Amino acid sequence: MKLISRTEELLLLVVCRLQADAYGLNIRDEVEAVSGKRFSVGGVYVPLDRLVRKGMLKTEKGAPTAERMGRPRKRYIITNQGLAMLREARAMHDAMWTGLPEHIATQLRLVG
Amino acid sequence: MKLISRTEELLLLVVCRLQADAYGLNIRDEVEAVSGKRFSVGGVYVPLDRLVRKGMLKTEKGAPTAERMGRPRKRYIITNQGLAMLREARAMHDAMWTGLPEHIATQLRLVG
DNA sequence: CGACTTTCTCTACTTAGTAGAAAAAGCCAA
DNA sequence: TTGGCTTTTTCTACTAAGTAGAGAAAGTCG
Asked: CA of A81: how far to CAs of A86, A109, B10, B12, in Å?
């Protein structure tokens, strides 16, 4: 069994979350908003493109109707394989976290 | 924000789970039982010792009373810092997975 | 002591994560 | 149409993490 990395899981979820707005720099900002994790400007594209190479994401050119300055955006879209991988990651998480000894579970309870 | 890797999270949780039996090869087997992930014989020790270096785990010599053959065991024990890191990992996971668009959430629902 | 058992250490290799500089691709003004 | 400004992506060199397997260590038992 090969597990997806946490960075990859996070990116996949953020792409889902942003839907039509899921392009590089926006993903970078949303990742930070959701998790506090920061990427450098170009830094997001490395794992993002790895996910494309692995078939978890696909890309499409940004909407041509946009009247914006600057280089056109590249939109990332999750594939069925990506969704499947997320389901698997979640199942793994659940398996890891269930059945812990009671006194440990107590200590792990989230404190407000 | 620096996120713990999934491998490290898994190992930390398995150490918790095994309590007094948390030594290398046993951890390796339990990891496989819980997650399906396989390490090579010596393979577990690399991330395990990294966790020690980072202060998330500590070790102690296996119980001296044991009447077993072979090299003595090295028991791994989670530290308070390790527990804190697990709480953080869990909080991050929850943040990542909440607030997804409804149609995505539907597709991510675990199927039996 | 020597053979056997069990567990750990070492290390070379592959893959993933990170940062920042530079290139691309568009708009707008002159 | 050229040059400058803006926005976004690409490139690449570096550090950290994951993986496999051979071999060393430290015991027991005859």
From this structure: 9, 33, 23, 29
What is the mean pLDDT, run by run of 10 residues, along chain B of 112 residues?
Answer: 92 97 96 96 97 97 75 96 96 96 90 54
**Residues B102, B9: Cα–Cα separation, whole Å:** 28
Task: Using a CB–CB cutoff of 8 Å, tell me whether A87 touches chain B.
Answer: yes
Distance from CA of A16 to the nearest CA of B (A): 7
Q: Does the structure show a pLDDT above 80 at A78? A: yes
pTM as predicted:
0.93
The spacing between the Cα labelled CA in A41 and the C1' in C21, in angstroms, equals 11
**What is the least distance, in Å, from the CA of B39 to any CA of chain A?**
10
Determine the distance from the C-alpha atom of residue B105 to the mean position of all C-alpha atoms in its chain, rounded to a whole number: 27
DSSP per-residue codes, B39-81: --TTTTHHHHHHHHHTTSEEEEEPPTT----SSPPEEEEE-HH
The span from the CA of A44 to the CA of A31, in Å, is: 10
Q: Which residue has the tokens 């496989």?
A: B32
Q: With contacts defined as CB-CB under 8 Å, which chain A residues touch B103? A: none
Report pLDDT for A111. Answer: 61
CA–CA dist B65, B20 (Å, integer): 14
Tokens 């930070």 found at? A32
The set of residues, in sequence order, having a beta carbon less than 8 Å from that of A18 and lying 6+ positions away, is A26, A27, A30
In tens, the pLDDT along A16-62 reads 999 999 999 999 999 999 999 999 999 999 999 999 999 999 999 87
